[in-house]
Structures are given as C-alpha cells and as structure tokens.
Predict the 3D structure of the following.
Amino acid sequence: MEPFITRDGQFLFFNNLNTAPTTNLYWATLINPTTFQFQGEVGSVNTAQLDGVASMDLNHNFYYVSNGSYAQNLSTIYAGIFAAGNVTGIGVVPGISAPMAGVVDFDAEISADGNTLYFSEGQFNSSGPPQTAQIIVAQRGTGGFARSTQSATIMQQINTNTLNYAADTSASELELFFTRLDPGGPAIYMATRSDVTATFGAPAKIAAITGYAEAPSISPDDKSLYYHEQQNGQYVIYMVSRP
C-alpha cells in the first residue's frame, strides 16, 4: 500500500497495511519503471505501532507517519535521513500537529526541495477510518515547519465536504494528485496551478484509474503515476502513464 517513488526514481517505498499494530515500511530498488527489486524493511523506523506512508526529498530527508507517541504528544509525522536502507536521526516533526486529542495528521508527503510538507488531517474515533479529512500545507522556516497561513486558500478547491487525503505533488509543485472519497469509493484526482503560491484549480478525476484506488505518487519525469488498488481484499501497486 501507499507507494512513494523517490524524486530520483531509484527507490520505491511502501507499507504492507495501514492499520496498527502490524504496519511496517519496506523499500525496493529500480530495475525499470514497472519492475523493482524488493530489499526488505526500511531500517530503524518500524515499531510495534503503525509505521507507514514514506516520502523523501532530493536530499534524502525521509518522512513517515507513526502513531507510536501520539498519546504523549499528539504528533504522528516523523523525519530522519535515509541511506542504504536505513533511517538515522529520527525525530518528530514539530510545529504542525493539531493540539486536540482525536485529530490526527496522516498521509504526509515532503516536496522535492524539502521546503513544503503536505499532509492530511482528520477527526478519528477510537477505531475505523477518519470522519473528516482535509489536506494542509506547511512551510519550512528558520524554526522548522509551520502551517501556511495560505493553506486554506491554496486548497480551497481540493478540500470539500467529503474526505480528501494522500496528497502528492510533482517536483515543480504545479501539479497535485490526491485521493477523494466519492460515492462509489475512493478515487484519484489531479489539479494544477500556475505557480507555487497560487490556488490549485478545480480537480478532475483521472479516468484511466478505476476501482478502489488511493495514494498516488508521480514519477520524476511527471509521466507515470503509481498508486494502490484494492482487489479481492488485498492491495496491489499499479502504474498509469501519459505521453
């Protein structure tokens, strides 16, 4: 589930589930765009809790989601440095968590340049899927990340009354791919904008992707989109391409 193709195209990160306590992160190396060599678990990030949704910027700053310390600090987004299959210097990403129990940040992705963090935030009950979900933008400053004062404006056509989550951006951040819960189930949408400070335009569903599909990740050349699809109770990673 929840694939992420790295910004240099050399690695594919993914997790095996998205429920605690059995979710772990894995990685694979590129052979060709549809063939990867499985390498095993990502080192140092997997715990007895939920650990998933990996992303990485061009400087190998590695971000992921874990609920291991949520009860203590209401934080779920972590970062470290990835090298040779292992992550070091792991710590909570401060300054972005909502100070309210039951509100959870999830499905985070770091931009290619490492300066913008896109993440989903939702209201959760004791179990089950989120009751709400919207996509939020955080910007890096001198003191770390902080929620952008323009986040609501940037995402005003993305965040609707249904669940919107699992944001993924192109390296230019002019294209946004994300998951929206439609009446028939989750589907993957795309939106564009003219520059990195602008509001994303009205999104359109990607017609080539059908079925129960979530968690898009665009390739470095912006031509191939990886995602997972639920089939017969299992999740399978797929890819669609454009000219």
